[in-house]
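Feature request, filed as a ticket because there's no other form

It would be nice if the structure record came with a short human-readable summary line next to the tokens. Right now we just get the raw output. Example of a typical job, pasted below so the devs can see what we mean:
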Amino acid sequence: MATTLVRPRTTTESAPRAHKALRHLGPNWYASVMGTAIVANAGAALPYQLPGQRVACQLVWALSAAALAVLLTARAGHWLHHRDQARAHLLDPAVAPFYGCLAMALLAVGGGTLIVGKDLIGEPAAVAADAVLFTAGTAIGLVMAVAVPYLMVVRHKVEPHQATPVWLLPLVAPMVSAALGPLLIPHLPEGQPRETMLLACYAMFGISLLATLLMLPLVFGRLIMSGPLPLALTPTLFLVLGPLGQSTTAVNQLADMAPQSIGAPYAGALGAFAVVYGVPVMGFALLWLALAAAMLVRAARNGMGFAMTWWALTFPVGTCVTGAAGLARHTGLTAFAWLAAALFLTLLTAWLLAAAHTLRGLSTGRLLAAPASGPAGPDQPAWSRSTTGLERRGLEAAQVHHRP
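Raw output as currently delivered:
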């Protein structure tokens, strides 16, 4: 009598099929969490508050927290079931910098917990949650600020024409810690704990600022010498706004906490430094925003389709919103308040576009679909066979979706 065995088929086919989508879930997806959390944080920081605005910010924060939980779980499954791909990501210079997004996602959601989330879960729980997320995000950010440049030096094969603003991602993470660390200072004991936190944030401000100053000439030099970025990578030009807006936010947030943390001579100097540093940096941010916007319009006219790189239009712009709001608070100038409001409208528009396209890509399965196999290799999409070097790797990292 003949029998049919179905259990081996279930073991060998169903299980891999269940985890297949996770194989192509890269660290760049954390940018969607960052971009969502900054909408809540920036909206709550605006000098102008409309009826219902804070409630809307609470809902967006809750969405970012839920997205973070789901993504952390999915990425854990990625490392568990696809370690070869995870290691390959670390060894790919186009993907490895996105590991900085993990730290910034933890920090952004943690900061939002104290800014607006406390209205929903209570202040004690918000402080505890932010303390955990801030500690984890800061530790990961500092590790990635060293590990990714180390890999670029000793393992990655990069050339000057391959530089993109994506290289800034692991270097910006400590600046996010510097900007959000002051939220915890009032909840620390007076005296040395508060002063230690304040100065630690300034130290991370310096780490990120100086590292960014080393990297920016490479990025701008690549644009001048090699021309525009590939279409799908054009939105990453907005990543340059991240260290600019976040550093302005950091010095203003730290200036707010300085009187509670350090002696009078230094507290006054740090308050003045917030304006002396923040105003020219915000000016340069607006210059770069205009340049990046012009390049984005050019790319759109040339047929730029949706890619996960569109999330680069959210978090960096949001840091400029909080930076402008901080300057409005310290200078009393209405111009900065209006600038913050205008930038927030830009942020909200970019977030709605990126979120809508991402949800559509997830619903159709295209953003997580396995790339087509062919001469270029089983892990490369068919359309990438006509590209080479950084353009191919960058497009893979961005998980580009072209409409047929």
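Something like this underneath would help us a lot:
Residues 128 and 401 are 39 Å apart (CA to CA).
Residues 1-15, 372-404 have pLDDT under 50 and may be disordered.
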